[in-house]
Amino acid sequence: MKIFTTILIVLALGLVIFNLTLLDFNKPFEGNSMVALIGIAASLCAIFILLIFRMSKKIEEKLKN
Known about the structure:
The chain is 83% helix and 0% strand. The protein is mainly alpha-helical.
């Protein structure tokens, strides 16, 4: 499970980087820049959820032992 979450985190980071290249910093709330902002926010949410999931699994393992 650790490898799977790591792969998903790396993919989400890749999406953040890709969306940063699409972002127009002069007009961030117009056209494709708005879609890029939504993609960045969604990818960051996915990263945080995966990190929380990984920490909960570590806590669960410690409680079992």
